Amino acid sequence: MLEATAFDAASFRRAVECVVARLDAYLRDCSTRGLALTDPSALLDAARALMRGEHDPLSPLDEHKLDAIVDLYIRTGIQVHSPGFMGRQFSGVIPLAAVVDLIGSTVNQPSSFYEAAQLPNVAERIMAEELNRFIGWTPGRSAMVTTSGASLANLTALLAARNDRFPQLWSEGLASLGGEARPAIAMGEDAHYSISRAAGILGIGGEQIVRLPMNRQRQIRADGVRAALRAAAGRGLRVFCLVGSAGTTPVGAFDPIGPLATVAEEEGLWLHVDAAHGASLLVSDRLRHKLHGIERADSFSWDAHKMMFVPAMCTLLFYRDKEKSYGAFRQDASYVFEREPDAYSAFESAAQSFECTKRPLIMGLWVLWALYGRSIFAKKIEYLCRLAADARRILGEQPDFEALHEPEANILCFRYAPVNLRKPAPPDFQVAIRNRIRRAGRFFISKVDLDGETALRVVFMNHRTDTGHFRMLLDEIRAAGRAVLAGADGDA
Amino acid sequence: MLEATAFDAASFRRAVECVVARLDAYLRDCSTRGLALTDPSALLDAARALMRGEHDPLSPLDEHKLDAIVDLYIRTGIQVHSPGFMGRQFSGVIPLAAVVDLIGSTVNQPSSFYEAAQLPNVAERIMAEELNRFIGWTPGRSAMVTTSGASLANLTALLAARNDRFPQLWSEGLASLGGEARPAIAMGEDAHYSISRAAGILGIGGEQIVRLPMNRQRQIRADGVRAALRAAAGRGLRVFCLVGSAGTTPVGAFDPIGPLATVAEEEGLWLHVDAAHGASLLVSDRLRHKLHGIERADSFSWDAHKMMFVPAMCTLLFYRDKEKSYGAFRQDASYVFEREPDAYSAFESAAQSFECTKRPLIMGLWVLWALYGRSIFAKKIEYLCRLAADARRILGEQPDFEALHEPEANILCFRYAPVNLRKPAPPDFQVAIRNRIRRAGRFFISKVDLDGETALRVVFMNHRTDTGHFRMLLDEIRAAGRAVLAGADGDA
């Protein structure tokens, strides 16, 4: 036996009480605030100062130090619960989901295997069935696998696609193709970087990515896909997978999934949809139509830590055909995989998951769904998409702003473009504005490159944000822009 | 604005109080217990019964339902905090680390980018420096990246190795090699399945894995590596990476890292060490020698959710040469990557991490380290390794048990092998025993295949477990074995 207060339940309770007091105040704070951007070396010193030297294992928890750490953690972080947070696709969480993570991290039941995490494995099955109500696949025929982020979900799906079309490559490797036509992936220009990364990782190579033409709304032009595929074949490429997005990271565009599915079916391609951001719209009766055709995709990814408002990360990877979900990874590992599936292993995801040890990712989402039902998700998503439409309308009323697209979800990109300037705006004008806004610490927005030019980008993730906040943001952008033009800004 | 009690701080506080009452009782329970293995369909019904239908968004949190969910979650899970838990390499956590996850999940600061999670990024830098005290690299020259599990860390390291040796493959793909010599990886027979999986994923192919000979202790025989490499070259393979383990998953064997490093240096190979399980021994002055030579590895992985006792997952990937850590992934994505690194981006891991959104994985470990220092880790690890040695000695005193190796860390494999049986034991004797133990619900142990035969396996992860519990386990194995031999066991 080893005695140390660190292992005691009493320390646990004291730590919770200390932490919850801070978190409660944090969640009650509705002020409009962005980021308190801190110099890393100053923060390094502050954090180092909170570390103590060697510790007497029998002395009690140092609540004072813990409190100071929590305070620093909260103050220096991105303020996802503030109406001033409009910059990224992760969210202020529904607080109960964070409490569920406390349970998960205390009882520590990794969920790849049924025997280690029985309820999480069952909850995965339940959520797969619940969410399939909005997809519409034949019950029991499809599969859902939880994984650690959409980059991993996209990689896994592309791997399943590669192995489905070229089953020998898992063992023989791509070098065995020996100068024959090269495996390739077709995707839209605005697909997430994890797709092109996956081409590099999987041995396909970035040069074997076929970029599909976009329309003005930055959606894939389905009528241009066949020509692109023919051109690719002419260059010796064998496209096996077509990747759509719903919606894209830069502007939240939804590719036309139905027409893409038609092409994929006719050409014998695997259709994967990166719906990390947009799949949550499925739970809304009003917005589901944006994903029309998703039931014809072979696979799609869905980040619940985006618009289902659970803590990062909780990614769901769906396969239309359950059998294909077993094709991504294949090997033998006796200490984990049962040779013969039994009633237990039928419920577990080890053979379909990249991870061996995996957090019980589903639990936050399931508990929210169990206690609150679908409506809070649907209502919040509808509110955020409506807010983006309202913001677009407001932009249209401002002569000194230029909207770059019609928002399809909760992302809106635009530029501050005042007319009649005495001299042209500097080349990094939008970046300089964004940095100035960030530094001012009242709003947090992002930037994006569209066709080689930088724009400002807001992502509405918070139901506390309203059009009043957006108008305040525009005023702050104007002030920042004027300061930049006046040369008052040293920092680009 | 959208009103719903689900978003309120008051609901958060009520949920925490409800949950903490259960978790406190759970952590106080020192009883010896294994798994309450439940039929999945019965659990499915129980979980479904806890879901309510549509919810009035203004009604308060249903604490009764939440309490029932927590109770079910705890009861049906693997009992990592019980002395009866001896089956897997994840651990009963140091409770404060779970509380830190509550903070992380509430404030939701994904940590790939400095601006989103300033303190986590700084804490990564601090822990890299703290842990490097036990590795010994020149300060500032190496890199540490957090990632979601050792499977991902191993994949990332192998990718960095592949891209280092064959830089053109990221763009051109492996098919471009066109029948030339094929890239290959050399590893021990007992390397974790994520290594051979990585060969499949990266397009190298499982056939390009060179399996290195082992000694009786199931360590790689360093004196056999060169011959294996020559034979591989003769088959047209270009081995670019040598993978050692410290320790292996089946028996916890530590490959001889120093001698492997010598071969790797002479042959121009990347040396990666999968030290997911064993790297934690570095923090112990008594046990560090097991990893002698680790400072000569190009990369190694370290699961803090194993023997640093934080919740799954917290994996650290170390690179000796910081520059090489940027070689795993390369592409452009304007909305996340700055074109020019600045004081902030120098602290962030987005370019080195597989994940785009990533949990602030380091925070539990850093807070424990800050408040408790190194000693609780070192003492607990030393206790667990000593317990394995004691258990080995106890086994040696039992004529009806057969130990299969000398434990090098906290893993011990053995068989129940009673002599003078009237008829031979059935072929699945050890599996039947293991399943019977699992069903009895007092101890949780695992099984492992060694050279095609199944053995029992214990992993000591809990300081509450002592030799008395191990003796009780042996008695229970005897009783289970007798019952199996008597044919009282229908379930293999």
Number of helices of chain A: 15
CATH secondary-structure class of the largest domain in chain A: Alpha Beta
Which fold name is given in CATH as the topology of the largest domain in chain A?
A: Aspartate Aminotransferase, domain 2
The residue ranges of chain A in which pLDDT falls below 50 over 5 or more consecutive positions are 331-338
Strand content of chain A: 5-15%
The topology string of helices and strands of chain A comes to HHHHHEHHEHEHEHEEHEHHEEHEEH
Shape of chain A: globular
Q: How many strands, which pairing sense, and closed or not: the largest β-sheet of chain A?
A: 7 strands, mixed
CATH superfamily of the largest domain in chain A: Type I PLP-dependent aspartate aminotransferase-like (Major domain)
Lateral arrangement of strands in the main beta sheet of chain A: 1-7-6-5-4-2-3
- In terms of quaternary structure, the protein is homodimer
Model description:
2 copies of one chain form a homodimer. With 492 residues, the first copy, chain A, is α/β, with parallel strands linked by helices. Chain A has 3 domains: 5-77; 109-371, Type I PLP-dependent aspartate aminotransferase-like (Major domain) (Aspartate Aminotransferase, domain 2), CATH 3.40.640; 376-485, Aspartate Aminotransferase, domain 1 (Alpha-Beta Complex), CATH 3.90.1150. Helix content of chain A is 38%, strand content 12%. Chain A has 15 helices and 11 strands. Chain A has helices at 9-28, 40-49, 63-75, 95-107, 118-132, 150-165, 169-172, 193-201, 225-234, 257-267, 304-307, 363-372, 375-396, 429-440, 467-485, and strands at residues 143-147, 182-188, 209-212, 237-245, 270-274, 299-303, 315-319, 401-403, 411-416, 446-450, 453-459. In chain A, the strands form 2 sheets. In chain A, strands 1-7-6-5-4-2-3 form a 7-stranded mixed beta sheet, with helices on both faces. In chain A, strands 8-9-11-10 form a 4-stranded antiparallel beta sheet. Chain A is globular. Chain A starts with 8 loop residues before the first helix and ends in a 7-residue tail after the last helix. The relative contact order of chain A is 0.14. At the A-B interface, α1, α2, α3, α4 and α5 of A face α1, α2, α3, α4 and α5 of B.
